[in-house]
Amino acid sequence: MIKIGKYILYDMVRNRFVMAYTFFLLLVTLSMFSLDSDPGKSTISLMNIVLLVVPLVSIVFTTIHFYNSYEFMEMLLAQPVHRKTIYFAEYLSVSIALSVAFLSGVALPLCVFNFNESTLYLILIGVMLTFIFVALAFAASVATRDKARAIGIALLFWFYFAIIYDGLVLYIIYTFSDYPMEKVTLSLVSLNPIDLARIVILLKLDVSAMMGYTGAFYQNFFGSGGGIIYSLLIMIVWILLPLLIAHRKFCLKDI
Amino acid sequence: MITIQELNKNYGKLQVLKSIQLNFLQGRSYAIMGPNGSGKTTLIKSILGLVIPNSGSIQVKGKSIHNDWKYRSHIGYMPQIGHYPDQMCIGQLFDMMKDLRNDFTNVDEDLIREFKLDQIKDKRMHTLSGGTRQKVSAALAFLFRPPILVLDEPTAGLDPMAAEALKEKIVLESTNERTFLITSHVLSDLDDLTSELVYLNEGSILFNDSIDMLKELTGEQKLSRAVASIIRNIPISMQTV
Predict the structure, then answer these.
(1) Which chain A residue lies closest to B47 (C-alpha atoms)?
(2) Which parts of chain B register pLDDT below 50?
């Protein structure tokens, strides 16, 4: 697996898109810190951008990459190599390449400008979101043979998690506001990795004003430490679930 | 070498392979022919494990290929259109394949020399023309001296010199007890290269015997005419075109 991963990674790192992504993240991070003199505020603005951009780029790039390397996978599959090996090598190398881009674009300048515990969490969350959305992109890609449809499904995932989901949750809470909704809200948050990521960072930054109803309850329910561990665990589930579902499908797929 | 029993494959409602029974013997060269969409590529991909059949069994060297992957070290495959990682150089690609198979010494680099690929080994894959890619695919298929070679449209896209070199290589290797499965629409190529013919039509086998037998049955001297007479003998209802 390491052998194959090494070659895929080599191909990815030279890819212009990954370099452009790194450069873009670097630009955003630097401009955030030059715009605002308070590093805490810049970290929050940066977080909002990371929560939108990282999932979007991860899911779209991975889907396109999957289809572009379709024939390469076909070639590898004709060699004496296990399908499982190819699948996980692909997954790991895409995730690692995008994580390296994220680390050098965001983590490096963050460590220079404003290194503390909360930025460390921002970095961790960025890497985890990359792994989650690459896994979701694999699930979208193995579901269909058609590249356009797969990109459509991938974008839908992103729209749903990044934009529609919050509205949906608000609507549910508003509709059922006469009932005790705390536990329901809590479980609803677990269904969205981006929300989980946001809560982890906000709990860490201790800015309950920005967390709203759910966040406040969350903090109350778990205390900061427990909430963070719970969120991180659920995020790991969010990596494994789509990854393993897609793996099952990939092993039975006609190439 | 390869035994196929009751192989069925359907894509949705479309049945692509209908209870195929085949036996490919060691040291023989088989031409797999049939009109477009008759199931040739699906058959080849089933043997390679790229397509998972709905039912039936395939055995390579006496072992079922179901849930196995090691058997593919016996097979060299040249796809119809080869795609490789864009940023990889030709030299790196060959090194990667050797690395994957853990085989660095017992390799057959005749075709690499013949096609002069060693002189352009620093060229990136995405800068190569379609024909050069075909040369790379062909060289890769022969690289590890596999006992079974599966060539899907080997001469399509190659210039006449390269096509001739590849054909010479195939003829040379078929004397070495290797089994060849070749699909092609260029009948004159198949006439020189293969001794057996499997003719598929709409997923069923119409003819499976030696080419000499076919010529005798039809009374024709050229493969193209003999094949034309098979097609003529298909009942109208079964014809695709």
Answers:
(1) A78
(2) 237, 239-241
